[in-house]
Amino acid sequence: MSVLDLARAEIRALQPYSSARMEASGGELLLNANESAWEPTGDGGTGCNRYPEPQPAALVDALTRLYGVRREQLLVGRGSDEAIDLLVRAFCRAGRDAILVQPPTFGMYAVCARIQDAGVVEVPLRGDFSLDVDAVLAALTPAVKLVFACTPNNPAGSVVPRADIERLAQALAGRALLVVDEAYVEFADEGSVVDLLDRYDNLAVLRTLSKAWALAGARIGCLLAHPDVVALLRRIMPPYPLPLPSVNAALLALSGWGQANARAHIGVVRAERARMRAALARLPGVRAVLASQANFLAVRFDDAGAAYRQLYEAGIVVRDVRRHPGLDDALRITVGTPEENDRVLVALGVPMQARGAA
Question: What global pTM score does this model have?
């Protein structure tokens, strides 16, 4: 059975839009796409009067080297959100199919499903925010075409062990596509499962440059998957998804200097995460600080609303995650620079001697 048998038949049969860039390349005088012949004022020679490549070769090559995949296994788009939306539209028939998620988790999985009028099956994480593989498999129905697993989890920070990912991929073969969201994996002790792609054609991995690579404003993300899945999604992807300034920013971030800079910052975040967790755990009014493998901490408070207001009055905005199951007393605090983290601790009343080494 091909993994494409899980996708919508009408998408498999779709004749995709063929853009001017797809139909012709090279040449010196481009008169095939109804573009302006003049660069915009102040463009500085970036060529923004021309449509970009649908999948820019230089960026695709840089990302394949970064993630250790082949070109045909990679689709680059506007953040992970676009890949999530494309997956749901390609695999879920409106009013008939469904996705499966494990709350608390990233909300865009369910939002994309509901926009498509696909069902959302919820299998909550355990009390310690670990994934219950048996419960996921027990809840699976023929309608479920996509199973999302977020690791490290957003908003709890917990990870799904590699063995559990493999077990799910094996059990879902021929039944559903397993989508592993690794938006925060650069901050985790346990590495990516991207090396499993050649073993399981029903496995897909989401990666992004928004977090560890400091490009949230550029909106560059990737789907890593079986070549047939990548080719299928390209059929329904807009013809020119990546703005040239975003592509250029990504290439700079992925240069030798850019990678060294990013990895240094990842080291700072990991050290600061440990310092913040220890300092916050000693604070009166803090019930617990959840163990996290991401670039944030979920903190349980006796009065999370009062803590939120206290931080806000100090000019600090954190994420109120009390609407999520199992986190009705929690705030999610992103780990910033040492100076920013000190501001959080000061605002919450952590004594100087309890703040640890900055």
Answer: 0.95
